[in-house]
Amino acid sequence: MSFPEDFNWGSATASYQIEGGFNDGGRTPSIWDTFSKTPGKVVNGDTGDVACDHYHRYPEDIKIMKDLGIQSYRFSLAWPRIIPNGTGETNKHGIDFYDRLIDGLLDAGIQPTATLYHWDLPQTLQDKGGWANRDIVQQFADYATVAAEKFGDRVANWITINEPWCVTWLGHFVGVHAPGLKDLETAVAVAHHTALAHAEATRALRAVRPEIRSGITLNMTNYRIDDENNAELQELRNYWDSNINKWWMDAQLHGTYPQNLVELYGDKLSKVVKPGDMEALKIDSEFLGINYYSDSFLNTPTAEQVEKNEGTFAFPINSDGTPPGPLTDMGWPITPTGLTDLLVRIHKDWPEIQDIAITENGVAYGDEPDEKGEVNDDRRVDYLVNHLAAVSDAIDQGVPVKSYYYWSLLDNFEWAEGYAKRFGIVFVNFETLQRIVKLSGSVYSKVIATNGKSLEALTKK
Ligand code: FCB
How deeply is 376 buried, as exposed, middle or buried, from its count of CB atoms within 10 A (0-12, 13-18, 19+)? Predict the structure, then answer.
């Protein structure tokens, strides 16, 4: 099992999922406050009002990370805490909170990695069209400028947008994420604006602090089909590969969008792409963030599925309708070697990327404390160990993976699934807000302390 000497071991969270303090210190509502308070949108009607109360308990969370030996912490800034109206005036209380968090991390010897946008758009901006309104590109760049001015002296690594695919498609076409819209034309506009906003925000960060390292985080996957000779499935796979894996990648690296999607979207796309946009999309990054949870399995969609999804959405099940092996609590398959395949593919298809950070990888299982108060989440241990082994295999094949952030440090508000799905290496009791390090947390701690060497014994088990 090999990891470079300077491999960076981290854990990740996001503001709306853990902070709580929803109306503390001048924070205004985000689209997720609105969405979660709309009946029927989130399981059990859960909201992020309190979440893990990290807004108040962050010193305890920093201490937990320090004790575990976590070297780097990926968190996100809540835009509505920093600029409550979305644009214009900044909010001292919000900025103070992140100052305290960042200083606390540095004091504990933990490197902060900040994500600018992990889905909590100020509601005031949504009221003006949000990501579908082109003004968002400048608004986002202005927010990036503020963030770099306030925190860029201490935060070296920046992620602009987390999973623009989810922002675009889950938020504006499928409607299961905030703002809950279901419109193809809107989604295509968002796909373009997020790509452009990434480039402009990167320029804005650099204009303030040229030494900053920044990148985008993309959720990527391998699309598997069970019949390589089936032309219909191949076409479906090409569509999906372009939609999820290539759109933001080709935009930033080449200033292009995949041709099959350009044709499919037609004037829905051409009318939002202004002169000069395609050149502006192209931007160098210091690293690429990858979020990987599982592979995706495509089968021929039924007529009903095609109709429901207007022919543009995936069907991640086997062709006989059965799931591919055991599923996690999210209903996702477990495909660790897919992570190796994905990393090798990225390195082959986009060799200019010289630094890959796994910015998220993790699993939901609902293990609770036993009578001794211990959380023995063996299945999460297996998932972690097997995925780290997959990362190590990719490194052995020459892929420049430099960091790994486990998702998530804490059990938290899992978007439309509410608190029902637990991803943490630290258990959170959502009644008392007590934290308990799970077995997976202890195992990860050992992995970090040995720079991965302890994995050898664990994979042989
Ligand atoms: C990703 C999100 C993250 C978390 C995991 C499970 O899509 O970026 O916030 O919810 O999924």
Answer: middle
Pocket of ligand 1 (CB under 6 A): 14, 17, 162-163, 166, 219, 291, 360, 407, 414-415, 423
Mind listing the pLDDT tens digit for each residue in 283-294?
A: 999 999 999 999
Ligand 1 atom 9, closest CA: 14
Q: For residue 312, name the pLDDT band (cuts at 50, 70, 90).
A: very low
- pLDDT value at residue 309: 55
Cα(183)–Cα(175) distance, rounded to whole angstroms? Answer: 9
Q: Please name which of 51, 44, 56 lies closest in space to residue 30, comparing C-alpha atoms.
A: 51
Q: From the CA of 422, how far away is ligand 1's center (Å)?
A: 11
Question: Are 93 and 82 spatial neighbours (Cβ–Cβ below 8 Å)?
Answer: no
Ligand 1 center to residue 387 CA distance, Å?
A: 17
Separation between Cα atoms, residue 27 and residue 95, nearest integer Å: 11
Q: Per mean pLDDT, which range of 173-177, 225-229, 320-324, 430-434 is the poorest?
A: 320-324
Residue type for 47, please?
T
Which 8-state DSSP code applies to residue 122? B
Q: Name the active-site residue from 19, 200, 360, 414.
A: 360
Is 200 a residue of the active site?
Answer: no
352 classed as catalytic: no
Best of 11, 18, 174, 291 for a ligand 1 pocket test (most atoms within 8 Å of beta carbon): 291
Give Cα 378 to chain centroid, integer Å: 24
Instruction: Output the CA torsion sign for 306, 330, 7, 114.
Output: positive
Whose structure tokens read 């992620």? 159
CB atoms within 10 A of CB 279: 9
Measured CA to CA, the distance from residue 55 to residue 17 in angstroms comes to 11
Ligand 1 atom showing the smallest separation from residue 414 Cα: 10
The ligand 1 atom nearest the CA atom of 217: 8
- Considering only CA atoms, which of 318, 305, 407 is closest in space to residue 357? 407
Provide, rounded to the nearest whole percent, the portion of the chain with pLDDT above 90.
Answer: 87
Query: How far apart are alpha carbons 3 and 350 in whole angstroms?
Result: 22
* C-alpha of residue 219 to centroid of ligand 1, in Å: 9
